[in-house]
Request: fold
Amino acid sequence: MKEKKIAAAVSAVMAYIKTEEEMATMQAADQDQSAKPKKVPAGFTLWGLSGRQSIMSTRTMMQMKSFHGSKLR
Reply:
C-alpha cells in the first residue's frame, strides 16, 4: 500500500513539472511573437472604437430598460 502512495506522489510531481515546462515553453513562444510589430487593420482608430463601444453600451442599457420607467415621485 505504501508503494502505491509513493508511486502516486512521484507521478503527481512529475506531471506538475511537465506542465510547468510546457507553460514556460508557451510563454517563451508568446514573447517571441510579441516582439514582432503587430499590423493594425485599416480604418482602425481609437476614437472610432470608443464611439462604437459607447453606442453598444447605451443600447444595452436601453434594452435592459435602465432608462425607461424611471419616474421620480
Q: What stands out?
A: The chain is about 70% helix and 0% strand.
